[in-house]
Amino acid sequence: ASAAEGAVDAAYTNSHEGGVTVTGVEDLVYLDDSGSMFGGTLTLAHDLWQDVATKLQGNPTRILKFGSSAHVLAPRSRSFSVSGVALNWDASSGRTYMWQMILEDVMNTYRPGPGLLRVFVITDGWDTDSKPAYQGVQGMDPMMKELKQQGYEIEFNIVFVRDPVAKKILQGAQRLVGGEEISKD
Q1: Considering the chain, what percentage of its residues have pLDDT values greater than 90?
Q2: Which residues contact 168 (CB under 8 A, 6 or more apart)?
Q3: Which of 23, 106, 25 is closest to 64 using CA atoms?
Q4: Are 11 and 107 in contact (CB under 8 A)?
Q5: How far apart are CA 89 and CA 86, in angstroms?
Q6: d(Cα 152, Cα 104) in Å, to the nearest integer?
Q7: Tens of pLDDT, residues 68-114
Q8: How many CB atoms sit inside 10 A of residue 5's CB?
Q9: Which of 52, 69, 87, 138 is the most buried (most CB within 10 A)?
Q10: Nearest to 104 by CA among 130, 128, 75
Q11: What are the residues facing 27 on neighbouring strands?
């Protein structure tokens, strides 16, 4: 890692001081809102969202959409409007800033604790806008390494819309970090 990357990662070390301590199961959902999701891909992703949402009601859940930046669709709560989230998920947020954004969001919102942070990501592509270490599918590796080093117990559930090659790569990564596959091809 470069000195600049180390400095950025070091900044995350103390960023979670004011966040929610993970004591039970906390669910966190990231919905890809980049322009590539527009049209049929977004329609399929909305169907997948319906499936994922059934797994979430009951635990504290926070929902964000992301593209060039992250936007909170539902603040942390035990209940949320599935259709309200879908209505505001419209493929209008630019490019794909994913793994680095997830790292920053987790570190700024949650403190490690004895509980489990379950992360659900619905996406059709890989990270294009994070700094180079976090780009592509392999950008998940440094993100996970940092989160584990910080003491988070974290499970990733990646729902990949379409691209079968990238889906296989993400399934391999998923086997390493836990979670399950939800698919509608």
Answers
A1: 64
A2: none
A3: 106
A4: no
A5: 5
A6: 13
A7: 999 999 999 999 999 999 999 999 998 999 999 999 999 999 999 99
A8: 14
A9: 52
A10: 130
A11: 61, 118
Between the alpha carbon of residue 96 and those of residues 51, 85, 125, the distances in Å are 23, 19, 8
Residues forming a β-bridge with 77: 61
Residue pair 178/148 in contact (Cβ under 8 Å)? The answer is: no
Distance from the Cα of residue 113 to its chain's centroid = 19
| Three-point CA angle 115, 118, 122, nearest 5° | 170
Q: At what angle do helices 140-149 and 164-177 cross, to 10 degrees?
A: 20
State phi, psi for 130 to the nearest 5 degrees: -75, 170
Q: What gap in Å lies between CA 150 and CA 152, rounded to an integer?
A: 6
- In this structure, the strands spanning 61-66 and 70-77 are antiparallel
Task: Encode the chain in three state secondary structure.
Answer: CCHHHHHHHHHHHCCCCCCEECCCEEEEEEEECCHHHCCHHHHHHHHHHHHHHCCCCCCCEEEEEECCCEEEEEEEECCCCHHHHHHHCCCCCCCCCCHHHHHHHHHHHEECCCCEEEEEEEECCCECCCCHHHCEHHHHHHHHHHHHHCCCCEEEEEEECCCHHHHHHHHHHHHHHCCCCCCCC
Treating both helix axes as pointing N-terminal to C-terminal, what angle do 140-149 and 99-109 enclose, rounded to 10 degrees?
20
pTM of the model: 0.80
Position of tokens 């440094």?
A: 142
